[in-house]
Amino acid sequence: MHPLYEQMATSVFERMSLAAAKHGAVNLGQGFPDFGWPPEILDAAAGAVVEGSNQYAPSRGLPVLREAVAAHYARHHGLDLSAENICVTSGATEALAAAILATVEVGDEVIVFTPAYDAYVPLIRRAGGIPVEVALQPPGWRVERAALEAAISPKTRAIIFNNPHNPTGRLFDQDELATVAQIAVANDLIVISDEVWEHILLDGQRFTPIASLAGLAERTLKCGSAGKIFSLTGWKIGWLAASSELATLAARAHQFLTFASAPNLQSAVAYGMNDGDAWLQPMRDRFSRARDRMTSGLEAVGYAVLPSASTYFLCVDLAASGVSLDDEAFAQRAVTEAGVAVVPLSAFAEQDPANHMIRLCFAKRDETIDAGVEAMANARKLMT
After folding, report:
1. What's the CATH number where 230 sits?
2. Same domain, yes or no, for 287 and 270?
């Protein structure tokens, strides 16, 4: 048995979702929306099952989808890409796996900003690499040049950079992007850029892909997600966008992970990418309203809520809310005693975890948000 997996705990998302189901709790833990997907894309997928191919797609993805992804990024971000720069994957987590396996060798160090999506560290270790955590500090969660420079060593091979950032909801500013870019170039590092939240932009924010900065186009593997863009997380259609050399390298790893993804879903995503720009702003507006509804509800019952500029998530500072329990203890009691599932932020770091913070998903219908806020109010009464 491989010791990495023998000793690995179940993902916090799976753990809290199972607990929510067991206790009949409102699930504000796992990050999936219960509204927001364009019905036209569902129709396109259904039509493709009947009218299109149901056999293996090309490993690097249907040409129509690879071309659509490249054209989408040209329109929205001015990136100079073609189908040769795109590799379609079974979700963005598989894109991350392919990127890491293709670029990280045994003994390489990989920088991870924490709190971090919990797939990064196990994937780095499975590749034989060594994760090096750089802790972002609440409440600002800023990338600090001194902290990043201090983490660099002669063994550093790559930086995993998640922007917009899960779980904090931060959209990093131009100075922070420049810091990462300059340090990557100065140290000849690969940047694996997890940009799946690039279109979930609230309050009129604008997103800048890190590959557009000087010196980054040839050293960046960008991970994207149709599931996040179209609120169809269960489809698990993602992609890598990179230089031809890096895209080909990652595609070689990808072919022995999942080989290919469902062709009808790829076809429907291509339709959405080509025809769906008008859907983006209404989607952002709906998520902004949901975030504001949850924030105002939580604040009204005494919780200290941190700002969220992107993603489906907001963070609550338990200590500032008058709750003395740590995040794990609060999460366990909240789901079993108050009927609401949340995610403890300490699960997103191994060193220097923010163990007085929890993450909640606001990508829910009004009635789900209201029920969750009511349960959170009961949790606070029980635990203060």
Report:
1. 3.40.640.10
2. no
